[in-house]
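User: Can you help me understand a structure? I only have the sequence.
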Amino acid sequence: MDSYHYGLSATRQKIQNSRSRGRKYTSRLFLNLFKLIFVVLLFLVLTGVGVGVGMIKGIIDNAPDVDPLSFGPSGFATKVYDSQGNLTDTLVMSGSNREAATYEELPQDLIDAFVSIEDARFWSHNGIDIRSIVRAAVGVLTDDYAGGGSTLTQQLIKNNVFNGGRETSFGAQLERKFQEQYLAVKLEQTLTEMTGDVTEAKKRIITDYLNTINLGNNTLGVKVAAKRYFNKEVSDLTLSECAVIAGITQNPAKLNPISGREKNEEKRKIILQYMYEQGYIEKDEQEEALADDVYDRIQNVDLLTREASSPYSYFTDELVEQVMDALVSQLGYTETQAHNLLYGGGLSIHTTQDPKLQAIVDEEVNNPDNYDTAQYSVEYRLSVTHADGTTEHFSERNIEAFHESVLQDGFNGLYPSEEAARADVEQYKAYILSESDTVLAEHAQYILQPQLSFVLMDQATGQVKAICGGRGEKTASLTLNRATNTPRQPGSTFKVISAFAPALDACGATLGTVYYDAPYTVNRKTFRNWWSQGYLGYSSIRDGIIYSMNIVAVRCLMDTVTPQLGVDYAKNMGITTLTSTDLNAATALGGLTDGVTNLDLTTAFATIANGGTYTKPQFFTRILDHDGKVLIDAQPETHRALKDSTAFLLTDAMSASMQSNRKFARSGVSVNSTSTRAALPNMSCAGKSGTTTANNDIWFVGFTPYYTAGVWGGCDNNQKLTSTSFHKDIWRKIMTRVHEGLADPGFPVPDSIETAVICRKSGKLAVNGVCDHDPRGNATYTEYFAKGTVPTEVCDKHVVVTVCSATGLKPTEFCPAKRTEVCIALPQNETGETDDSVFGIPGDCNIHTSISTILDPLESESESSSAAPQEPIVNPYLGPGYVPQTPISENNRGPGYQ
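Assistant: Let's start by predicting it. Here is the structure, written out as tokens:
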């Protein structure tokens, strides 16, 4: 029994022990599994932490290096000043309309307003605000986001280092956020070490922040915002105004007080409440600010600002190009860098523009009394979508085609009034549009015609004192500038530049050098003078300048200069638009491929006025960077283009062209000097006019001892002008006013000049008793010469010929009476009739051909009549005498060159 119980007990014990071992094994297995899982999890956590730490370390290591002193504003508006220091224009692009304020300029209410709404613990945290970060994180997790955790320090870094935080992916945003927080702590630590005081570091940060934030309407920084919205200095802002500005920053597009007044007003109330709750203001201050009708003041200032804003002047338009070129060529910037510096570098550009002279130019150019007619052209653009979905574009060319093909009314592109132009546009729209059409865009600009440009410069320095690129209202910046970047055909002004200047300077010619004025053909191209008929025979370079003689200029270029040398001289005197296709005879008359700009042509004449020294046109004297450091101190760029003797000779001849001169021809042609209408009553002057075929372009470029000025007139689309002298009146009026009160020193004769008496018809030394007995009068005169160029040969054009007293022809042996006459030796192969050919060496007498004719009754009668007093012969060299029935003047001309 006992053994039975023992066996049962033992069995139970064995079973129990077995179960106990199973539980032990199971427990051990679970324990080991737990350990394994724990180890794995620990490994994963440690690995994750390690990876995370590594990633964060990598992100931080890749954070950009920043200079704690570089967080000030990096983009500023560039200011343009005239020669008297007056602000004339502001150059600004998006991101650059800012000015820096010092901490002392910032009102405490403004600082407190920003701190209260943006970073309440700004003065106590170390660059990041842990409480704000946790609040923001909880808000994201609970879908109760109430604002970001960025401090003002972080925002400063985001705006100035990370371009405002424009990342498009979450990963990039997270990376930027880590770097931003790291740099914020680092910035505050560095500034604290630099200043030795936490508060001073904070002041630096809040100042940089307030100088760089976007405050709407391309307004960056609180100093510009104070002027933009309240028309006052930032230091003068009231509490209410401070709250308005502080309310913009979280969303400048929607919260600016002009276009987002209601939302800004809500934000202003919140800011004032925060300022009260945080102890910055008292309750009565809050209520007073809330009661302020601040938004009515903002609207008024906005209206004033919009009315005051205007496009750049024509001077500034060209200045922009000149400064860009200087930044690239002198400082080595790329085009992009130069553009960014010009519009965002806060430069101070001191220009050569004289405000008084510019005002004179603008007044006269825009005075309607200075023009005989006032017409209008239209610049038109219309984009239309038709019912079938296609889009079609129209312009003023389509309007002209409408007139030509439909109305057939001979329309030339000009309207008698702006109202007529508007009516024509509406008529055209009614013709082309159907009810199903949709107008996508339409632009119409009505432009006063004829147009005009004017350039005024100081030839001694190259400084451009005033320019006007067109008459009428200027509606946009950097648009068509007829003074500087619109080439037009220069007409006869170019004779001086391309033909006469190089002939005198390099080819041994003198002002007395003669060319035969007669029909002249080059490569099947026949050239004529500007007057309708008649040729004058031997004519000098002086004549060619005074009377603007086409044949003289062309023959001078082709026979003496060569087109290549003429083009080279023009380029050396400042003409930049010439091409290889201008190497031809027409260049002597300004028949160019591309034409010239007024600025270039005026510069070329300024070279003559400056004694032959070319000076590059200068639009600015100094360019300073934002800190006042001189970037460019402009110095004149000069080179010798002409001898001083050449410059004087041209000046003297052009001065004579502005005096009253008239050249007579026995054929009845009378040619006037072409520039008398521009002559000044109060100052010595010299210049040259120019008119192109069909009167499309009219010019006058001239100078005084002080200034050189060029005026161009014409229609933008090359319509023929009905009046061709108004530009000279404008030149005269402007230059008369410009020189008021100035003494007239005249044009001094340089030491390189001497004089000699020569014959007009040969340009050589006059023969006494011969040249002064020209059939038309005394042909001798005193001429200026460059030293060493006085002719040594005597006149070979006047010859003394014995003629039959009865017939005036060369005598035969049968002529009973003879006498001597002074005749003109004509060039070979010249068969056309000229004023000289009338007095050429005659042929043989055709009356006295045999001995029987000696006693012919007609002979006695002829002798009798020949002995009678002759009609007085007019003297075309000494001044008025014979006046033809229809004298030719600059307003009564025939076709010029074709």
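Now, to help you interpret it: The radius of gyration is 44 Å. DSSP finds 25 helices and 25 strands in the chain. Let me know which part you'd like to focus on.
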